[in-house]
Each structure stands twice: as C-alpha cells, then as structure tokens.
Amino acid sequence: MIKAPFDGRIALMRAHAHEIPDRTQPLMQVVGEAELEIEMLLPSQWLRWLKAGVVFDFSIEETGKSLPAEVTRIAAVVDPVSQTVKVTGRFTGTREGVLPGMSGPAKFAAPDG
C-alpha cells in the first residue's frame, strides 16, 4: 500500500504490479480535489477594474454547466507580446462533476464606464 500526502484521485499509473520501477521516476500521478483552480489569460486592459474577489461565470464545455466563480490571484507580470495577464480563480459554489483539466470560457460582467 502507498499512502498519498493528500486526498485525491489517481490520474496516471506509471508502474504496475510485478514491475520493477525506475527509482528516479514517479509511480503514479495523484490529482488533489480539495480546491480546484481556474487559470485564465485575460486582456491586460482589464487590469483597470479586475481585482481579487471579482465574480464571473465559468462555463464548462465538457458538462455544459455554468458555475459561479471569483478571481483569487492576478499575476504580477503582463505578457508584452499578447498583452494578457494570467489570472487565477476558484469556484464559489458547488463544483460537482468538475474534474481537473476541464475547460471553457469565463464570462465577466461588463464594468460600468
């Protein structure tokens, strides 16, 4: 038995019963499910109004569901070529049926002015 350092699900098994694994390689990949994050690239012009705590809807393409979320972090650097900034968010309600790696568009309410 192998005990994981956190609760999660096995995403990839790299070693199987009766094999002698390479000691420098991981045996498996475990994905934590405690707090899923949403990673987005947004226009840097949005930094005029975008702040931690701003709410948005995240539509998950795989399930067709739209879930409420909020901005948690904004990167400290703007990409000068694409004029985008990396933004991280989290789900604020239930996220039942959401798995790591799912994707979709984020929908923000247009700011006033």
Overview of this structure, please?
- This protein has strands at residues 8-13, 28-32, 37-43, 55-59, 66-79, 84-91, 106-107.
- By secondary structure, the protein is an all-beta fold.
- The protein folds into two domains: 1-34, no CATH class; 35-113, Beta Barrel (Elongation Factor Tu (Ef-tu), domain 3), CATH 2.40.30.
- The protein has a five-stranded antiparallel sheet with strand order 3-6-5-4-7, with no helix packed on it.
- It is elongated.
- The mean pLDDT is 88.
CATH superfamily membership of the largest domain: Efflux pump adaptor protein, beta barrel domain
Number of domains: 2
Strand content: 35-45%
Compressed to H and E, one letter per element, the order equals: EEEEEEE
Q: Rounded to an integer, what's the Rg over CA atoms?
A: 18 Å
Structural class: mainly beta
Biggest sheet, strands in spatial order? 3-6-5-4-7
Mean pLDDT: 88
Helix segment tally: 0
Q: What would the principal axes of the Cα set say about the shape?
A: elongated
Number of strand elements: 7
- How does the major sheet shape up? 5 strands, antiparallel
Q: In whole angstroms, how far apart are the ends?
A: 59 Å
* CATH level-two architecture of the largest domain: Beta Barrel
CATH class of the largest domain: Mainly Beta
The helix content, as a percent range, equals under 10%
CATH topology of the largest domain: Elongation Factor Tu (Ef-tu), domain 3
Poorly predicted residue ranges:
none
